[in-house]
Amino acid sequence: MDAPGSVKGTALLAVIAAVVITLYFLPLKGRKREGVIRALFLAPMAAAFAVTVLIPFFVGIFYSMTDWNGIGYKNFIGLGNYIKIFTQNDYLYSFGITLSFTAVNMLVVNLLAFGLALMCASDMRFSKFCRAAFFVPNLIGGIVLGYVWQFIFNKVFVLAFEPSMLTDPNLAFFAVVIVSAWQYAGYIMMIYITGLQTIPKEVLEASGIDGAGALRMLLKIKIPMIAHTFTVCLFLTLVNSFKQFDLNFAITGGAPARILGGKAIQSTEFLALNIYNTAITKNNYALGQAKAVVFFAALAVVSLTQVYIGKKSEVEM
Q: Residue 314 pLDDT > 80, yes or no?
């Protein structure tokens, strides 16, 4: 005898199959039939997106307004969790340090990546080898990479920084920036190279004949003509920096401590790590969910603002 769950699953699949077959063989012609067929092909992906993204998102918003403990909830407390998180110094500090890291990391990664792209897009020898070499760090998992660099900072760089950079609240921040740039610059470099290769050679040759030097050609021709590439790269770097978790977790774990308002807080605990520690380490799932909702809203606002400014700059160029 089949279990009730398997019977329900079989019945659901049978209903879905019946609906698909009915829609496919409907007596429709032309655009209406094409629209139905397209909808059938999109339906599995749309259903997967709804189940894995949309439904959990709205359920998460609801749980953030309760006293959810990871299993269930007893009380609906409204905006209580949201009010609480904005009175916590450690959360406000994490918000500020994440914004600082995002700004610094965006600048460092894009400057480094664009410089590497200019070098690798030139006619220098071994340019293809350099592209592969610079891209390889991006293929290494963040957790593994973080622990490797933690060893480097504690055992190798300690010769230059005594004690280790990871023991200083200010230097530990830049340690994460160094590793993030080392890992991600190669990926952004490939996008810049693609953009540089779209510039017509005739334009560059004509500017050279007119006497334009390398710097003038870069500022007046190359950068304006790949403005859309800068928008894409800045967006990707912004999102990656704002969501930084694995390197932060593996390299510093939020340490070392810093005294703020008479209370010890984690000096390099970015927002994603703060949410993880609240929900998983401290078992405060409702509060962690509220922080996650605010995290999503902040990321959406910051990224959309960056894209708007980038698109506006493209038009001006």
A: no
CB-based contact 232:106 (threshold 8 Å): no
Q: Which pLDDT tens digit goes with each residue over 35-82?
A: 777 877 788 888 889 889 999 999 999 999 999 998 999 999 999 999
Q: For the chain, which residues make up each domain, given as ranges? A: 4-63, 83-316
Is 273 within 8 Å of 282 (Cβ atoms)? no
Cβ contact 280:194 at 8 Å: no
| Centroid of chain to Cα 161 | 30
The confidence score (pLDDT) of residue 1 equals: 45
Q: In angstroms, rounded to a whole number, what is the distance separating the alpha carbons of residues 195 and 213?
A: 20
Of 7 and 123, which is predicted with more confidence?
123
Cis, bond preceding 163 (omega within 30 deg of 0): yes
185-193 mean pLDDT:
97
Q: Average pLDDT, stretch 113-117?
A: 96
Q: Using a CB cutoff of 8 Å and minimum separation of 24, what contacts does 73-79 make? A: 73/286
Structure tokens given for 146 = 């973080």
* CA distances in angstroms from 124 to 80, 127, 129, 153, 189, listed in the order given: 60, 6, 11, 33, 16
Q: Can you identify the CATH homologous superfamily of domain 83-316?
A: MetI-like (1.10.3720.10)
